[in-house]
Amino acid sequence: MLDEHARPMTDQADPETAFLEQLGQRVRTMRGLRGMSRKVLAKVSGISERYIAQLESGKGNVSIVLLRRVSGAMGAHLEDLIPADEPTTEWPVIRDLVRNATPNQIAQAKDVLAGRGHGPLQNYMSFNGIALIGLRGAGKSTLGKLLADKIGWSFVELNKEIEQHNGLSVAEIIALYGQEGFRRMEQAALNGLLGRKEPIVLATGGGIVSEPVTFDRVLSSFYTIWLKAKPEEHMARVRRQGDLRPMADDRSAMQELRTILLSREPLYSRASAIVDTAGLSKDKAAAQLVGAVSRVLNTNAQAFGLRSAAS
């Protein structure tokens, strides 16, 4: 005889299975944001590549200690991997700002949130130039230089600025200080550039979107453009540059690149504009970029006494 109070059988996954699947998706997305292959993550975390694959597929009943090692290897916060309903899409930015805030800033923030504030906590300069974002091989350096030459502005590659400030290559910084250390240096280099108070054309690193506060600063300080291309074009351009970091010796390099791009697309899409360079020559892509920035330059460049894109 059936118990009338018994729960009916359904095809829905039980809560634990659903949790593990969401956890695996978060790990896979975070790995993509960091631009790490499974092989690299396995090496840095000291956990087998096979186990990481199980974890990402939702079949790894991971211990909190191992999950902590995975998050540490990616320079991420452990809580970012735990499935939860975020109160807002801006929550990672707010959380990290609070983590680094002074007691006085926290007190001001509490007043604002409680409706007792008397103005903004901080106003960033609304226009510091043009920032180019996108995956490696998007043409940020090549097209950025062409744009800077046309409008008479300085061109800066953020990664080279980081290397110059610290006397180490990006690869050496990551090897010595890890992803978290590199992101701190990236934020410091960006703050230094903004302190110059002059508009620039900035080529950012492809993974800058993985650091909420730094990326939010880029979005709020620059007219930001996502240089978009097909995965095959990204791969071909990276190969021509002789740089397969971090996908070297990985037979599934193209799949890893697709994973990275898929993970980052929602963040790249937050840019002010998108320039799709797929199938375009360098000159045609440059023309598309100039066209995308003409309006904002004509509006803002005059305030700095500089040439606009139309001149």
Quick tags:
single chain; 311 residues; alpha/beta; five-stranded parallel β-sheet; 54% helix; 7% strand
Explain how this protein is built.
This protein has 311 residues and is α/β, with parallel strands linked by helices. Helices cover 54% and strands 7% of the residues. The protein is built from 13 helices and five strands. It has a five-stranded parallel beta sheet, with helices on both faces. Helix 8 crosses helix 9 (170-194), helix 9 crosses helix 10 (212-221) and helix 11 packs across helix 12 (253-268). The longest helix has 25 residues, at 170-194. The chain is globular and about 55 Å long. The chain starts with 14 loop residues before the first helix and ends in an 11-residue tail after the last helix.
Short description:
The chain is of the alpha/beta class. The protein is 54% helix and 7% strand. The longest helix has 25 residues.
**What is the strand content?**
5-15%
Radius of gyration, rounded? 22 Å
Strand order of the largest sheet: 2-3-1-4-5
Tell me about the biggest sheet?
5 strands, parallel
N/C terminus separation:
86 Å
Number of helices: 13
Describe the secondary-structure layout.
Layout: H1 15-34, H2 38-45, H3 49-56, H4 64-73, H5 91-99, H6 103-113, E1 129-133, H7 140-151, E2 154-157, H8 158-166, H9 170-194, E3 200-203, H10 212-221, E4 223-228, H11 231-240, H12 253-268, E5 273-276, H13 282-300
Parallel strand pairs: 1-3, 1-4, 2-3, 4-5
